[in-house]
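Problem: given the chain below (408 residues), write out its structure.
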Amino acid sequence: MVKAGRVPKHPPLRAFCEQTEKRIKRRQSKKDESGRSALIKLSKLQKDFLKNVLQELSIAGVETTQCELAYDGIRSIDAALAAHILILVQNRYEKWIKEGSNAVRSRTGIFQSISGLVTKLLPLAKDQIVLFQREDRQSEYDPGPIITLRLSSQLQQRVAHLCLLAYENRLPYVTSELKGSDFAWSVRYVDTPGSCASVNTLLCVSNQDIWLQCEVRRIWDSRPDRFDTVHLPIQQLVPAELLPKSKIELPAVVPQVKVRPFADRLRALKKVEHIYDSLVATLYDMERGIPDDRLALADRLWFGEGDSGPFLSARRAWRKMEERLEIWEMSLEAEKAELCRDVLGIEKGDIVILKSQGQMVRTRIDGASIYLYDSEMCFRIWGTRFRKDGTLGKRQDSFLLHVENDAK
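Solution.
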């Protein structure tokens, strides 16, 4: 409405068009109440591939009604279905090209379209998939082949079972073959099609991590390329209730009855640690005492020898002792970790519940050690805390459990 004698700020038709355009963009940017994604535009070729996927999934008995197509793309889609489509389109597109189904016959721009379709589907399925990169990458700008793993509920239960096998049998890790519907390789559409004679993938699960063992055979190279992917914490991929380990509740003060059976080991540990500390202090005093050039001058003046005099020889002997002390330190830390396992019943990777600042905290143990004093001892535990929603967080915490030291 414009008052008499006034000129509108914008022409009515242009203002109406701008308001309509803003309203459409605002509607497209919103997500509906079911958590489905906004409109994703696809080219005609990408839409043809998507129709092929939906047809195959429907024949296989997968519910596809949660994917609503528009004339120019995807109006809305469920994350689990998007993950299923993402895997299938990477594994089957070469077959569809050869069959020429649904007007997918021209090879011009096909591989760019596949790569673009995968890029558009990845954000839609980010909660249902995991991307594994090569661990020994030569350059951060060249990630190498990327394996997409669909984290379905069946796969999560399978990973939990493998974790239980590794934990109960004290195995470093357990391997299992993956089904074709669970994973896909980026080499199928990033590299030249047909360049890979075969790709093999094994799922590896320990009581702490999950990763993939891969083998790629190129047509022009008879030697297979074998590598491992990066390791991911299993607690970030599998719900805590599916993991086989029971939660261990630790007391605020460790009873002496748990410590008494290990009194001899604790006394021996205390003596060895005292000797180790003395040697380290002596080595430090030697290093900062007299420089090497002064020792060499003393050898020449007193013994008539240069680099082979007794003073420099003694200095070299002490430096060789430093390497042995590093091995000694590692042995001491391993013995402390074993004592924590024997006394408290915990080890690296266990999930424990303990009290911190008046609140019960659930933590995944990353390490444990023992501090021995003259009249008491305590256990130090450090690890990663779980969030309130049950997922593993990033916050690192350290806890002390005190106990009177009977092992004097």
